[in-house]
Amino acid sequence: MGTKGNIKCCAAVFHFLIFIAGVSSLSMGIYIIASDYGAHQLSAVLGDELYHVAAYIAIAGGTAIAIISLCGVCGSLKEKKCVLVIMSGKIQKSMKIALVNKYGVNLDHSENRMVTEVWDLMQKNLECCGVHGGVNSTDSWAIYKIKSQWYKHGNNRKAYVPDSCCRHDGDIITCTGLNGTEGTPIDGPPVGGNVNPHLYHKGCYDELVNYVQGHVLMIGGIAVASIVVILFGLIFSMSLYRSIREVDSY
C-alpha cells in the first residue's frame, strides 16, 4: 500500500512539474504578445515576425502541455480516468454543436464561415470525418446526414458528406454518395459489408487525440525552443535599453 502511494505521489508531482512548465510557457507567450517592451529594438536582430511567432507557439504549446499534464495530475491522484472522460465529453459536445448547427449554413456570418473552414481543413489534414467514433458511429461520418443543418438546408448537391471527408486520391462523386452506390455514406450506420474506400470514416476528435499523443514531445520541444527565443529577445532588449540609458546619461 505504501509503495502504491509513493508511486501515485511521484506521478502526480511529475505531472504537476510539467503543468508548471506549460503554464510558464503560456504566460511567457502572453506577456510578449501583450507587451511592446523591446519589440522595436529586436526587429533589427530577430525580426518582429520571428519574435511574435515564437510567442504564439509558446502559447499554443504551453496550453497543450498544461491541459494534458493537469489531466495527468488529477488522474494520478484519483487513480482513474474520470477527469479525462469528463473533459473528453465536453470537447466532443462542443465539436458536435459547432458542426451540427454552424457547418456549411448561413456562410454570410463570419462565425459560421470560420467553423466551416476549420472543419474542412481539419478533415482534410487529419483524414477524418465528423466528430467521434468509427464506421458504425452516428457521430462520425453519419453525423452530417443524420443531424447536421448542412444536410437539411445548406447542401445544394444533396451529397451525404462534404468533399473534405473524401480521400485526397479518391473519387468525390462516389465518396459523397452522389452516384447512388450502395454502402456508405448512403447506407448505415450500422454498416454491412459495403464500406466506401473513398470516404474517411473515423471521427476527427479521435484522430486529433491520436495526433496530440503522437506529437506531444514535439509540441513540448517547440514550446521550449520558443521560450529560448523569447528569453534571448528579452535579454537583448534589456541590455540594449540599459546601453541607451547609459549613453543618454552622459
TrEMBL record:
It is a multi-pass membrane protein. This is Tetraspanin. Belongs to the tetraspanin (TM4SF) family. Keywords: Membrane, Transmembrane, Transmembrane helix. It is found in: Membrane. One of its GO terms (cellular component) is plasma membrane. SUPFAM superfamilies: Tetraspanin. The chain crosses the membrane at residues 12-33, 53-77, 216-241. It comes from Mytilus galloprovincialis.
